[in-house]
Structure formats: C-alpha cells, structure tokens
Amino acid sequence: MVGQRFITLLENHPWFEVVSVAASGRSAGKTYEEAVGPRWKMDVLMPEAVKNLTVLNINEVKDVAEKVDFVFSAVDMTKEEIKEIEDAYAKAEIPVVSNNSAHRWTPDVPMVVPEINPEHFEVIAFQKKRLGTTRGFVAVKPNCSIQSYTPALNALKDFGPRTVAVTTYQAISGAGKTFQDWPEMLDNVIPYIGGEEEKSEKEPLRLWGRIENGVIVPAEDPVITAQCLRVPVKDGHMSAVFVTFDKKPEKELMIERWNNFKALPQELKLPSAPKQYLRYMEEENRPQTRLDRDFENGMGVSLGRLREDTVFDYKFVGLSHNTVRGAAGGAVLCAEMLAAQGYITAK
C-alpha cells in the first residue's frame, strides 16, 4: 500500500520522475499494472505513466542501479533482508530513502522528520565512510504512529516536556488493509498492534537526539508511555496525549506556537511541504479523522481539545494521515530535503 501511495504522490512531481519499479522475483518481468492486478488500494486510478513499466527484480541491484538516481524503499521482507538489500543499493552508490523500519536504529542512519531534525542528515558523511561510498547512503523516516503527537511536542520543546502518556487510534491502512480485505475490522477495535508501542515510546527520542562521534545518540527525555489500538477507520492515526512540562506554558502560548510553527521545509518551499504544518482547531469535536486527515494534502497535523488535566499539566488530541505524512509523503519530503541540500543529485 505504501508503494502504491508513492506512485500516486510522485505523479507529476516537479523534481522526481518514476522511471523504474522493482519487486521480488515473482513480479519481475510483468508490467506494473499486471503485477499489482486487483490489489490496487488507492482511491485514485493508477497513473498511466507507470502502468506499462516493466517490474525489475529488486535483487538484481546492478541492473536497477544503472537506471536510477536514487530509490524509495517500501518492501515486504524481514528486517534482515531489508537491511541487506538497502545496504546493497547504497554500496552500489544509489541513495536509499526508506519507509521501512529496518534501519531506524542503525546508529549512523538518519531517521528524519524534516520539520523536526533535518540536521541529522549530517550523519550521512559518517555512514558513507563506513560503507565506503561517495554517493550511496540510507536515510529513513520514522513510524507513522508518532507523527500525530511528536510534532506538537517538538513545537513546545523549550518548555521541557517531561512525562508523556499517549494512546494512538490507528487506521487499518497502517496494516496495509482496506475494509474489503479486512472485514473483521468493521464494528471492531483491536487493542494490540505488534511493535507499535515500543516505537511510539522510543522513536521520538531518536528524533530529538544528537550526533556524537558519527552516530545518533537518542535524547533521554521525555519519558513516554504508549498504548496503540487498531480502530475501524480507513486512513488517519489519532492520538490522545497527556503531558507534564518542566516549565508549564500558558494554554494560549501553546496554541500560538502550534499555529505559527515553521521550519526548514517551509523556508525552502519544498514541493511536498505543507504551508502550515500544525494547526489548532477550536471546535470541541475536532479534529475528526474523516474531516481532517487530508489537511494540507495529508502532510499537515491537526490538533485540538487542549485543556488542563488533573494529573498531568495538559491533554490534547492530534491527527495525521498515516500513509501520506506518516509514510510515503514523509519519505518524499525527506528526499526533497536531501536533494535541496545536495545529498541526492542526478548522475
């Protein structure tokens, strides 16, 4: 599903052109349209420009590398297989921008949300030394579940978020599913998503980490505890967040920080960057998944229901589009930032 989202987001992209698609050997040799078959899950039609692309074998690295300037990676393999194939492309001097989780904790691989930690791309120089490359490297984006609340906390970082409790309500597209192929999710909530709670607690700390001796050292705070639920929603991850600060800010100041937040992607006017990354919604019943997940073409984050809490300092709700900002769109924005900074170039 993320691969399909990449295809739709890259249609008519002003900087990038899809020239090749690659997959496992069982799809190789077919056209993209034949390989996908009835499994096209996007709401829009498959772009004409990719229908007749011949699917290449992902394991034939040299052949693929000759045809492309860089690759987006969204593959269904084991973590070890993903690490191996992504490193193989990097060593073939092809930059890899990955949606996969396999390399998120490799110490010299940057895991980046461009509005939060673009400086982590500087670790690429150390990664290239390890790999022995001049052009090739791997960069990744974080888990989709954290992107409904981590940006809101990031905008308040100078107030010292100390303790965070979060529950995420995650759409079925996060599992690559639709209601047609997962009918048991109708009228149902599953209170477990494998691996999500650890990612939700730990990955924000890596985003807020620092580069030391050529590796990313995660931040030590805030302490985050998470629960992650699968809910009967097509797209959009929602979070209910409780937070205590070292220096408790005024509510009005928090809202002002969110609504006026700008970062490097906005300054550079990158093609996929939202003009407004964060917005606070005053209505008592917003944000709502169906109404608000497509804010800024799915690249923005909607926040609401900010109020003081009886245990923590504040509580609020966040919402982001999990397959756009949380997956393919976030990776495309990373690639745009890497291109703007000279890490990705045409051969």
Task: Sum up the structure in keywords.
Aspartate-semialdehyde dehydrogenase; Rossmann fold; six-stranded mixed β-sheet; Semialdehyde_DH_NAD-bd; alpha/beta; 12 helices; 347 residues; aspartate-semialdehyde dehydrogenase activity; Dihydrodipicolinate Reductase, domain 2; NADP
If you had to describe this structure to a student in words, what would you say it looks like?
28% of the residues lie in helices and 19% in strands. It has 347 residues and is an alpha/beta fold. The chain folds into two domains: 2-143 and 328-340, 3-Layer(aba) Sandwich (Rossmann fold); 144-321, Dihydrodipicolinate Reductase, domain 2. It is globular, with a radius of gyration of 20 Å. The two termini are 29 Å apart. The mean pLDDT is 97. Keywords: NADP, Oxidoreductase.
Could you give a quick summary of the protein structure above?
The protein has two domains: 2-143 and 328-340, Rossmann fold, CATH 3.40.50; 144-321, Dihydrodipicolinate Reductase, domain 2.
At CATH level 2, the architecture of the largest domain is 2-Layer Sandwich
Query: Order of SSEs, N→C?
Result: HEHHEHEHEHEHEHEEEEHHEHEEH
What CATH first level of the largest domain would be assigned? Alpha Beta
Unreliably modeled segments? none
Q: In percent terms, what proportion of residues is strand? A: 15-25%
Structural class by secondary-structure content: alpha/beta
Describe the global form.
globular
Got a strand count? Answer: 13
Count of distinct structural domains: 2
The H-level CATH homologous superfamily of the largest domain, spelled out, is Dihydrodipicolinate Reductase, domain 2
Fraction in helix: 25-40%
| CATH topology heading of the largest domain | Dihydrodipicolinate Reductase, domain 2
Q: Helical element count? A: 12
- Rounded to the nearest angstrom, the radius of gyration is 20 Å
The order of strands across the largest sheet is 9-6-10-13-12-11
Straight-line N-to-C gap: 29 Å
Give a quick account of the main beta sheet: strands, pairing sense, barrel closure: 6 strands, mixed
Q: Give the overall average pLDDT.
A: 97
